[in-house]
Amino acid sequence: MNYEEEKKMHVSFCGSYCHICDWHTGKIRKTAKAALDMVQEYGGFKRLFQDKVDVNNLLQGLNILAESSICSGCKAETGADERCAIRRCCSSKGLDLCSACSEFPCETLKKNPGVIKFHCIENLFKINEIGIGKWIDQQWSAYID
Question: Do the Cβ atoms of 92 and 73 come closer than 8 Å?
């Protein structure tokens, strides 16, 4: 594995790893497509939902997810600076990872829901501790198991 290329494209600035992300792998899209197909195939869901769920809104939401594109990763996307303060900050400072910043871990990281959910700050500390190559190997190993 080319660790420099992997780091450049698939280890996000905040410390998440694209290859195990459900958006990047297409799992979200596939799951939504399967749910959409099931709801459409089995008309009985309307009776099950009755007045509790707007089936048309449900179908519309599932369709949006089923048709969504697979994320190429924040370092591979163009124009992602607009939607991500973390990427914008790192890019402006010329950093590959937030952990290279003198302000790490900053409030922007600490308060970001995705960073919290995916334990990105812990990931960045681990990368600093064991090195990017070993960390990537651990991510692959954990994902495959």
Answer: no
145 falls in which pLDDT band (50, 70, 90)?
low
The alpha-carbon radius of gyration of the chain (Å, integer) is: 19
What is the per-residue pLDDT across 72-86, written as a single tens digit (0 to 9) for each? 667 776 665 566 888
Q: How many structural domains are present in the chain?
A: 2
Do 138 and 91 belong to one domain? yes
CA 85-23-94 angle, to 5 degrees, is 30
Work out the percent of the chain whose per-residue pLDDT is above 70. Answer: 85
Domain that holds residue 35: 27-66
74 with 115, same domain: the answer is: yes
CA angle 125, 127, 130 (to 5 degrees): 105
- pTM above 0.90? no
